[in-house]
Amino acid sequence: MEKYSRRNSRVFVDGDACPVNKEIAKIAKMYDQDVLFVASYAHMRKDEGQNEWKYVDSEAEEVDLYILNMAQRGDIVVTQDTGLASMLIGKGVYVLSPRGKYYNKEDMDQILFFRYASAKERRAGRYPKGGPSSFSENDRQNFKESFIKLLSNLKGI
């Protein structure tokens, strides 16, 4: 993991369908880290608690565009959108999936090719059996460990 230096980094969360929002808020608080959850108005929540939320239009890609425009070198973004991840990595942003996988430059060509090939198959009417695996407690634990490790490294702990 390449280390970028920038003061006052921020965590942005693609919050529309993120299964680890509570874990992000809890861990970020332990590290005194600012977090902004970004979601569309269609996913507005009543139980925001102490967290900061930014709501954007419900049009396709609005959340991604907001995060892409606001995130700066050294920030952290939690998203499962590989297209967004590839653009953010180019800006020097750390990108982590809700399953705890770090996205990096070295893997992006393969990830984006797989995304393209899968979309091409779906357009041709061929769908994989079973779809993606369900989000598990093991995925949640992997995310927590990866997020803690990333924040610890960035804070120099």
Automatic annotation (TrEMBL):
Domain of life (superkingdom): Bacteria
InterPro entries listed in its UniProt record: UPF0178 (IPR003791)
Membership in a protein family: Belongs to the UPF0178 family.
Protein name as catalogued: UPF0178 protein BEH_20025
Native species: Priestia filamentosa
